[in-house]
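**User:** Once you have settled down, spend some time on the protein underneath, comparing sequence with structure tokens, and judge whether sequence predicts the tokens.
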Amino acid sequence: MQKSTLHEKIISTAGDLFYTNGYNSTGINEIINKCGIAKATLYSHFKSKEDICIAYLTQRHEEFLDDLKQYVSRRKKGKNQLLAIFDYLTDLYREDTFFGCWALKTLGELSAKQKRIFSTIQKHKKELLLYLGDVVLENIHNVSKAEVEKVSGGIYMLYDSAITEAYLHKNAWPIYLAKTIAPSFFSNLDMKS
């Protein structure tokens, strides 16, 4: 197996374990066994479990953001694009492998000493918030910076709550509720069409 392919396999295998079993509950030996590699091979790719986790979170975030951007771009301008994140979340929820937000699940397990993982999650969440701000700018006429922050921040907060609560309750009602609340952040603004 080529080095880059093996590198990706380690990230993917460890990521699946972190997402389903939890970061703290997943040991290096379990990752090694699932990958079918030697410990030295794993450490030739990653210095630590923390490094694997950061690679997993980064890969997952990049895939999510790319998929979300494509999903939103296929929607009609205006309200449809502003609410698309909730439709995207509904699709995620329907997958058999839905266990909530990978970043928030990992965040909930961190100690105060795990600052690198914390910073990675924080960076990813900021990137999502900035992207939602771009969606607002693309879909609302003459919107002020304060209005962009209010709308994008509101959608972001509803999304993060909905993904967590849908997993907690094993039901999609939090997603549907969030989608019905979201327009209150932009209903009085001039939509592009």
